[in-house]
What we know:
Layout lengths: L16 H4 L5 E4 L2 E4 L2 E6 L3 E6 L3 E6 L4 E6 L7 E8 L3 E7 L4 E5 L12 E5 L7 E6 L5 E6 L3 E8 L4 E9 L4 E7 L2 E6 L3 E5 L4 E5 L6
Antiparallel strand pairs: 1-2, 3-4, 4-5, 5-6, 7-8, 8-9, 9-10, 11-12, 12-13, 13-14, 15-16, 16-17, 17-18
Amino acid sequence: MASVASPVIFKEFCPLYYLLNAIPTKIQKGFRSIVVYLTALDTNGDYIAVGSSIGMLYLYCRHLNQMKKYNFEGKCESITFVKLLSCFDDLVAVGTASGRVAVFQLVSSLPGRNKQLRRFDVAGIHKSSITALAWSPNGMKLFSGDDRGKIVYSALDLDHGVCNSSLVLEEPSSIVQLDYNQKVLLVSTLQRTILFYTEEKSVKQVGTQPRK
């Protein structure tokens, strides 16, 4: 008996003009006109987060059709990575070209959720460009990796507004991917992929040959 083929779903792909039109293509800084490049992207069911070359994070709410902007104080530098998380509160982590990492706890209109925008900073452990970010499902842990192979663990206490960070691992080559689940951190670098067991602080390499 022939199996019944599953139905084919057609999807249309088109530029998100409503999003792109809300982001300036140039900004004026003194007498200079600076071109704005889009440098990082992440999405979930609630938001589209876009990082830019001018240090501005553009956060589009898909339910309210509203664009909001967030930035780092001080130096205007390129955002290299953004990572959204929707748990009890909506969170977005942002990394920059100089190694700055910040977490924004977003405002929610839902009862019992966060009513005031808060920002947490990962204090000066990274000294080079952020290349990867990974959340724990509950938003209490954030892992950040940079292009010099450093991986930093940040413990967030959202109730008390505290962020404590420490260096947990250092690889000889750039971090290209991080993913965290069930006390295990998956780390991919330019040379290898490893599993880092956060409780035992032990490392297990995936495969035996280095990447070419």
